[in-house]
Amino acid sequence: MNPTIPERQHVKANPAEKIILGIDPGTNVMGYGVIKVSGKKVDMLAMGVIDLRKVGDVYLKLGRIHDRILSIIETFLPDEVAIEAPFFGKNVQSMLKLGRAQGVAIAAAIQHDIPICEYAPLKVKMAITGNGNAAKEQVAGMMQRLLKISDKSMLPYMDATDALAVAYCHYMQGGKVALQEKSNRSWASFAKAHSRSKDAKSPTPTAPNEKLKQLLKKH
User: Fold this and answer.
1) Is the pLDDT of residue 178 over 80?
2) Predicted TM-score (pTM) of this structure
3) What CATH topology corresponds to 18-188?
4) Cα(28)–Cα(103) distance, rounded to whole angstroms?
5) For the purposes of burial, counting CB atoms within 10 Å of the CB of 31, is it exposed (0-12), middle (13-18) or buried (19 or more)?
6) Which of 204, 197, 201 is nearest to 180 (CA)?
7) 58 or 185: which carries more pLDDT confidence?
C-alpha cells in the first residue's frame, strides 16, 4: 500500500477545518490523497496507493477497494470527496473496469454520507499545471511544491500525487461542493446529476418559425 501518513487524531481538533479526500481510480493501483484546508493554508495529511496487482479476481479487487476506502474515510473523516472521472478511451473493457473501481469508491463515500465531486483528468491537470496535457511527472512536481512535500515522503507511485491533485483541484474550485450538480449524497442524486449532464449535452429541438407556422395554416 506504501502510504505516507503523519500521525493525526481521529477527531478533528478544529471544527473549522475542511478535510478533502482525493481519489485517482485504478484497477491495478488506486491512488488516494488527503489534504487539510484551514483558510488559505493547505497541508497534506496522507497519500498512498491501494496496490491490487497481486489480486487476480476482479470482484475481490473491488472488495479490497471498498474496504480500504472505508478505512481511509474512518481514519481521516473527510468532509468532502473529490474523485477523478474515468478517461473515455477506445478500450471499452478498460473503461468498464475503471468505472467499476470508481463506483465502488463512490459507494464507500456514500455509505458515510459524504458529498462527492467528480473532475475530468484534463480539468485537474489544467488546474494544477496550467496544461491539460501535462505528464504525471509534472503533476507530481507541482504537488510536491504546492504542499511542500519532502523528497523522502514522495512515493514511487504517481497515482498518489494524482489523487492529491484531484483533492487540490477541488480546493481551488472554492469548496462549493454543496452547490455543484455533481456533488451527491445518495445513489439517486448521483444518477440524477449524471442524467441531467447527459441531457444538457443533447441538442434542444428548435421551435418552428412563426412565419412558417402561418404558411402551414394557409395551406
Assistant:
1) no
2) 0.74
3) Nucleotidyltransferase; domain 5 (3.30.420)
4) 15
5) buried
6) 197
7) 58
